[in-house]
Amino acid sequence: MGHCPEARLDNGVSVAIALPPVQAQASPPKGGPNVSEEVFYNQQGVLVTRSLVQLAADKTFATANITSVSTGTIQLPRPSPGCQIALIVAGAFGALIGFGIMLGRHVGAGFLTLLLIGAAPIAAGAFWLRSIKTPAPIYVLKIASAAGEVEGMRHYDMQLVQGVAAAIMRAIASRS
Predict the structure, then answer these.
(1) Cβ atoms within 10 A of the Cβ of 89, count?
(2) 28 located within any domain
(3) Could you say which of 23, 121, 131, 138 is the most buried, measured as most Cβ atoms within 10 Å of its Cβ?
(4) Are 88 and 165 in contact (CB under 8 A)?
(5) Residue pLDDT, tens place only, 67-89
(6) Which residue has the higher pLDDT, 10 or 48?
(7) Distance CA 93, CA 83 (A)
């Protein structure tokens, strides 16, 4: 910690004043693409040039080290409908109880039970069951080098992943 300056109040009491630390100005980033270097792709934080591929802040590859590029798809499974079916079954039991109460000459109470404990859970379960959707696929870009294959990026936009793969292939071909 550095030295804290002091201030004197009118009554002679000294008070230490804590100042925030001074940070040095950062120099502009170095190692970016050359001004004259051909850019094959530069969108959504992805940069592909003749000499480098930058997919994220922490994923940068030298184009010379890339041997091949491939794309793939990850399809997540559809969620299980177990809870929705259990709600519908519970509603069916509630409806049976409501019918039983109605048969026992308590029509008002039976109808209310049929609606609240039977029909409402059945309707809620059916609506919930219909709302289950299969998740959208995730598209993956894989980059291979002499060291092995790594996953370069994942995205829900197939055109983005395929566009980046095509740009990397063009960059590799331009080095030949």
Answers:
(1) 13
(2) no
(3) 121
(4) no
(5) 999 999 999 888 889 999 999 99
(6) 48
(7) 15
Q: How far apart are CA 95 and CA 89, in angstroms?
A: 10
pTM check: above 0.90: no
CATH of the domain at 42: 2.30.29
Distance CA 37, CA 110 (A): 80
Q: Cα separation of 73 and 158, whole Å?
A: 9
Contacts (Cβ under 8 Å, ≥6 apart) of 64:
51, 175
For residue 67, the enclosing domain spans 34-75+136-175
Q: How many domains are contained in the chain?
A: 2
Two tokens at 10? 């009118």
Tell me which residue of 46, 50, 52 sits closest to 32, measured CA to CA. Answer: 52
pLDDT at 142 over 90: yes
Q: From CA 139, how far away is CA 161, in angstroms rounded?
A: 7
Our CA dihedral for 87, 92, 93, 99, rounded to 10 degrees, sits at 150
